[in-house]
Input
Amino acid sequence: TTPDESPRGGSAVAGDDRTAPTDDRGAAFREAVTTGVGEGTWAVHDGDGERMWLDVRYELATIGGTERVLGSVRDATARWELSTRTEQVATLHDAATRIQRCETTLSVYEEVVAAAEEILEFDTSVADELVGDTLRPRAVSTALSEDEYYETTPLDAEDNLAARVCRTGEPSVVTDLTQRDVTPADTAFRSVLTVPLGEHGVFQAASRTVDTFDDSDLELTELLAAHAREALSRLEREQELRERTRELRREKERSEVFASAVSHDLRNPLNVATGHLQLARRDRDDDHLATVADALDRMEAITEDVLTIAREGATVESLEPVALASLADDCWGNIDTADATLQVRLPDGLVIAADPRRLQHIVENLFRNALDHAGPQPTIELGVLSDGEGFYVADDGPGIDPESREEVFQPGYSTATDGTGFGLAIVDEMAGAHGWTLSVAESADGGARFEFTGVDTEPTS
Output
């Protein structure tokens, strides 16, 4: 062979940037003439147009008294493809790291396009964001003119590949656009690779030559898209969390304003009435004044309960691990339990994620409710639900009529003549503030059983 000929009858081509095989076909030959041995690697197309890589070795030898250069060729396609694949995977890993560090959606789209330029071979690419029912370009690989790409694309466009892939969620590789019923942004584009970014949009790479993209390109692009989807979803969740946090702050501020108004507008006249009652009772004390005193005490209790709902019903912003058994013992010691019995049926060391102060209020209110309604010597039980996803407080009293189980959580509902009707409403509000669900059922002894679900529980021993 001569240095200008291509082995196996294929046409010699320059190597691409990823593998960078030897472009100077005469270098190895000249080196052999000068030093005795010359080696190089060529990128060529075989007779079928398929690209392949060849290792070429030249040796200077004397045959029959004449110096000659002997050449040998070995197929190096597998080695170069493995090398290329290794570099692509490394590039993809680096890109994934950069994508996960992105703090804006725009930077995610830009990183996707930048990574694709390093991994794939194409003429142009674009990352579209799905906004409502429209695809809008957020990042492009080159400065595209209006003639080269759509400003926006309706999601229901039937003749548009990006819209079609975004709708179906199925990736697409088109080897020759002239054979498909689609309208490209630029008629010069011949092959296109399109991959969905989930509910966020779509990525598309286009080439002006046919059959540019293969299964390997599709696989790498899908992996890249998966990292992009994860990052975009994370940023979406973080945005929702920021909005929710702002709403919680506004809710807390409204609750504090309401509580302040209640405290001022209700307690002031109550204090005036209580003061006049005390003056009146200095002169005489009869059943009528005693009834007034009871009514004022009840109004004070109701006011306190309303304030509690206003202040404590707002969503809990921070949770702490709380040892439920220890907290129950503290609650039991804080109230007058008379002849009642407490049975704690919890796994050793069980902790739940909660606001300790509000959880104490919840447990104490349920204990008081059982003491008020379950009879003179009730047995109250605190335990964990069978699935481990919550806890319950139960008693052996008469229970709650199934038809009234939804009403008991309504503010003001009470079956006792001296009750405010806010105790269980407060419990329900505080449970909701934790993100828990409170329901009432019948206990094993026929009494009431209050169940809290959606609770993060974990035994520590």
In short: Residues 1-23 have pLDDT under 50 and may be disordered. The longest strand covers residues 51-63. The domain at 91-238 is CATH 3.30.450.40 (Beta-Lactamase). Residues 318 and 355 are 7 Å apart (CA to CA).
